[in-house]
Design a protein that fits this description.
The chain is an alpha/beta fold. The protein has helices spanning 5-9, 25-33, 47-57, 104-116, 139-151, 163-173, 188-198, 209-221, 236-252, 273-285, 298-311, 344-357, 373-378, 384-394, 396-399, 415-421, 437-445; strands spanning 63-66, 73-76, 93-99, 118-121, 124-127, 130-134, 155-159, 179-183, 202-205, 227-230, 263-264, 290-293, 324-328, 337-341, 361-366, 404-407, 426-429. The mean pLDDT is 93.
Length: 446
């Protein structure tokens, strides 16, 4: 049974050192009880207390890792019902269904799409992570396809009702820690034993949430920790109901049998790519830990990846670009030098417009704690006495003979201060809008 904040507080070191991020041990204990903190944040808790508090301090929804090494993907680990309360942690893992009964050409095409459909967005690489291999009745073929998918760089979901078929595949890819799908009331003991033998996560599946909870509890009693839940619903309204029920019971009631990520199958809920994408998008928003699609198409996958990025970006922490010098094109000694803030969207707009001008340039990015230019200026983070020292220490003077710095038109007011900070430099006022940068550069530097 979960401990209360006061019960946890009694086992705390009571140093009130604030090294955990909150001012008192009582506040930290309350956060632990609410699933909003992790025990490892306290450096002074005793080993005895740590053992007793392990279950109480665990996130209400366990983080489950599927795959190993560079192919590993995490699901779960959530602590809130709504993103604005804090943040969602592990983005919904997207996968493609590959049936072992499909011909080699079809399978190869899907795996090719898996590898090639990768996108750069605000400094991040967006791509799918999983391939779900479905049994076609031939254990040897199933194992072969699983190995091929693993070699393509995918974390795996192995889908079969036959334990011997799963075992044949695990002989090939067991070291990659695939997710076994699925343990049911009929095969619970056999799949449990197989998951223990290969130290793999496993899915529990039933037709109702209550039955899922009962099977999950049995697996926990057998020593399993890495479990994924499938409530069995394949109708939109029913699955939304199940997802919300599981999330609320796990978070609000700390009901441990449901404290695991879920898997959903849009590939089994729609008969065309558009409806499938809508279904997948629904469960990216509504608590799906893993979503399996029937195929990877750029026009379907890219919007889902963007939706996922938006939902799982921490609303309390702006996305930032690393401070430094960014060459655009192949700039030389006499190429123009521009400066902007490290808000990712600002950086990518400015760098994109500079690139489209086809004028090789140097772009300096100043750390403004993720604020846009105008907001950073208002906050005193994009001002002359910060920009000047940054320019001097950045190393740009070693890369170019140019001593002319182009600042955003929206920050023209700082030009006087900059001239004092950089007496050997000329300060030029650039356009206010990013869309006007190409014309400005071509007119003045082409």
């Amino acid at each position: 049974m979960a401990l209360s904040g006061i019960q946890i507080f009694k086992m705390m070191p009571k140093k009130n050192c604030a090294e955990c991020g909150v001012p008192t041990c009582l506040a930290f204990a309350m956060n632990l009880a609410a699933g909003k903190a992790e025990l490892d944040q306290c450096p002074y808790v005793s080993d005895e207390a740590r053992e007793k508090l392990a279950s109480a301090s665990a996130p209400p929804i366990r983080t489950v890792q599927i795959g190993a090494g560079d192919n590993a993907v995490k699901a779960g680990g959530e602590t809130v019902l709504f993103r604005h309360e804090k943040t969602f942690n592990n983005p919904t893992a997207l996968g493609c269904l590959v049936a072992a009964s499909e011909d080699d050409a079809t399978i190869d095409e899907k795996l090719k799409a898996f590898k090639e459909l990768s996108y750069e967005r605000v400094g991040l690489t967006l791509k799918a992570e999983l391939v779900a291999v479905k049994d076609g009745g031939d254990p040897g073929r199933f194992a072969q396809v699983a190995k091929k998918a693993s070699d393509a760089g995918a974390a795996l979901v192995l889908m079969s009702d036959n334990v011997d078929t799963l075992k044949a595949a695990l002989a090939e890819v067991g070291t990659q820690k695939p997710l076994l799908y699925a343990a049911t009331a009929a095969n619970l003991d056999d799949v449990s034993a197989l998951a223990k033998e290969f130290d793999c996560p496993l899915t529990v599946k039933a037709d109702k949430v209550g039955d899922v909870a009962r099977l999950s509890a049995k697996l926990v009693e057998k020593g399993h920790k890495d479990i994924v839940l499938d409530s069995g619903s394949r109708k939109m309204s029913e699955l939304i109901r199940d997802q919300v029920l599981i999330r609320r019971l796990a978070l609000e009631k700390l009901y441990r049998p449901l404290g695991f990520p879920t898997i959903v199958f849009p590939c089994e809920m729609a008969d065309n790519p558009v409806d499938e994408a809508i279904t997948a998008g629904t469960f990216i928003s509504k608590y799906g830990g893993i979503a399996i699609l029937s195929d990877f198409r750029g026009e379907v996958l890219f919007p889902l990846l963007l939706q996922r990025l938006n939902i799982f970006t921490d609303p309390q922490r702006p996305m930032t670009t690393e401070q430094g010098i960014y060459p655009i094109g192949t700039p030389g000694d006499d190429s123009p030098i521009l400066i902007t803030s490290n808000f990712s969207l600002t950086y990518f707009i400015v760098s994109g417009e500079v690139e489209s001008s086809r004028v090789p340039s140097w772009l300096l990015v100043l750390n403004t704690d993720g604020l846009s230019v105008l907001t950073a200026w208002a906050a005193g983070k994009f001002v002359g006495d910060l920009i000047g020292p940054f320019v001097k220490k950045s190393g740009i003077e070693e890369k170019t003979k140019t001593r002319k710095l182009i600042i955003p038109g929206a920050a023209a007011i700082i030009s006087g201060d900059l001239e004092e900070e950089l007496p050997d430099w000329e300060i030029a006022i650039g356009p206010r809008e990013g869309a006007h940068i190409p014309a400005y550069l071509r007119q003045n530097y082409a």
